[in-house]
Amino acid sequence: MELAGSLVLLVGAVVTVLAAWGVVDFPTPIARMHAATKPASLGLALLTIGAAITASSWDLVGVGLLVTVFLFLTAPISGHLLGRAAYLAGQAGRLEVDDLAGAEPGGFAPTEPRRGPSPLRVLAFAVIWVALWQDLSVGNVINGILVGLVVGLVSRERTRGSRISPVGAAVFVVRYAGLVIASTARVAWEVVTPTNERVREAIVEIPLRVSSAPAVLLLANAISYTPGTLTLEVCGGPAPAPARLWVHVLHFESVPQVVAEVRRIEDLVMAALPERAGV
Q: Which residues contact 242 (CB under 8 A, 6 or more apart)?
């Protein structure tokens, strides 16, 4: 366990150092977002999990996995906002393709009034609360339920149009992890090479097949968490209006190649969050 944990810690440390190096080495602010918000997050997650494995503590492993999930939910959003701000400030640099130029993306908020706190969400908050405190007691469970109820009451809207498929979600986690590892290796290689000749930046508009807010959000986050791609803008609404993403890519080859990469992730999202008919 100590050897396995040490190896995970070593990989996490290397990834984190390469992320910091990429922030200095990459030529434009948006390109630096690919290093700052993805490999750094992956490195922190590996360091947390590696420390837990070294300590032979399954409780800490659970906390490490929660940290990974939280980073997946938050780091892409910060990268999206920073990248979007850099683009609007004219700091995008030379782009091979710029589909965002002249575009006027609207919002994306297909919601409907919430009738009350979702029991599944309340249960999820209770589980996370107990896991973070590492104390399965009646008081902690009650506190977690109360937190879930408060969040449910404060949130006046709920997204619609999708459900979770356990099998599809498991396939998504496994296959997406492989994509993240492969793309991280590609960006890391770009960092350690003496020049940035392979960096060809572009922003490509991609119409989506998914339309529900959870599916679009998961897809946008998955794209942004994958090194080499970053979601800059989201637009769409309830059917029949298709949702669209504007994706910044670090290694642009062609528009069909970018679309194919996004479609690969979108297929995993559609399997994990199948949409209800009529949405």
A: 207, 208, 209, 211, 236
Give the predicted TM-score (pTM) of the model: 0.75
139, with CB counted inside 10 A (0-12, 13-18, 19+), is exposed
pLDDT digits (tens, 9 = 90+) for 115-174: 556 677 778 778 877 777 767 777 777 877 887 777 766 665 455 555 788 888 899 989
Q: What interhelical angle do 2-25 and 29-36 show, nearest 10?
A: 170
Contact 150, 250 (CB under 8 A): no
In 26-155, alpha helices (H)? 29-36, 39-54, 58-88, 119-133, 138-154
What token pair was written down for 165? 């498929």
Measuring CA to CA, which residue among 161, 57, 31 is closest to residue 108? 161
User: Taking a C-beta distance cutoff of 8 angstroms, is the pair 125, 145 a contact?
Assistant: yes
